[in-house]
Design brief:
Elements lengths: L9 E2 L4 E5 L6 H14 L4 E5 L4 H10 L5 H32 L2 E5 L2 H10 L4 H10 L7 E6 L2 H11 L6 H13 L7 E4 L4 H15 L15 E2 L11 H4 L2
Parallel strand pairs: 2-4, 2-5, 3-4, 5-6
Antiparallel strand pairs: 1-7
Helix pairs in contact: 1-8, 2-3, 3-4, 3-5, 4-5, 4-7, 6-7
């Protein structure tokens, strides 16, 4: 279930939407689907994968005989690389969509870096990261794809392109829920089928931005929609844990 907690109205259109969550939650699949759906509906959108390079560093570590990225560059080194690469990716995505007028569908955003820092236990880095990422506007809608870490682990093992430990997935899940931004996230039951997850996202956006399935007749985004900060979530704690 996805639910908006407050419904004030203001003119606007969908410019930036972010999908966040632990590895294995289906962020990439859903972000691709959403960008394609919006474009097909006459609302041109571009998918942006705002990765921090952790997977690439992990592969490099294996080639060099190290078990993982952290063992290659150290915890602080990993967090520094992640923070910089993700910042650059988000900046490029926002500039691109500003110039083209297309909706930016973000696969990961600033909150992912804050959660990564907390999950790694590098809390002193969070203040620096927040200072650097403060220049970015908050997405109009941020979907947190909530899935049980055990299910996320099974998905990662099935795809076979990388590996995460249960300890890391659990720590990341806890970190997302502890972020001060958590009350503004729209929680999506990502343990459901991909089709059902897409429906939850689509239904929520339809409620926020009426007429999303057709072109904006004015061409200027003049349809009414509630503000980004008014998008909340119905808690899934009963299904996914605290």
């Amino acid at each position: 279930m996805v639910r908006s907690l407050r419904r004030r109205r203001h003119p606007g259109r969908l410019r930036t939407v972010a999908l966040i969550g632990i590895d294995g939650s289906g962020k990439t699949t859903q972000a691709h689907r959403l960008a394609e759906e919006l474009t097909a509906a006459g609302r041109p959108a571009t998918y942006h994968r705002n990765a921090g390079g952790r997977r690439w560093l992990g592969r490099l570590a294996h080639r060099l005989g190290r078990p993982d990225a952290q063992r290659l560059v150290g915890r602080d080194g990993l967090l520094a690389v992640e923070s910089v690469l993700r910042w650059l990716a988000i900046a490029a995505a926002l500039v691109s969509c500003l110039l083209t007028g297309r909706t930016a569908v973000m696969d990961r955003y600033a909150a992912c870096q804050y959660a990564s820092i907390r999950a790694h236990g590098g809390h002193r880095w969070e203040r620096l990261a927040r200072a650097g990422y403060r220049v970015f506007p908050r997405p109009q809608v941020t979907f947190l794809l909530a899935v049980d870490p055990a299910e996320a682990y099974r998905r990662i093992e099935r795809r076979g392109t990388d590996h995460e430990t249960m300890g890391w997935l659990t720590a990341a899940d806890t970190a997302y829920r502890a972020l001060p931004e958590y009350p503004t996230f729209v929680l999506v039951d990502a343990g459901a089928s991909p089709e059902e997850v897409s429906r939850q996202i689509r239904d929520h956006l339809d409620g926020l931005f009426p007429g999303r399935h057709g072109p904006d007749p004015a061409g200027d985004g003049s349809r009414d929609a509630p503000p980004a900060g008014d998008a909340g979530a119905e808690s899934l704690a009963a299904r996914t844990g605290p």
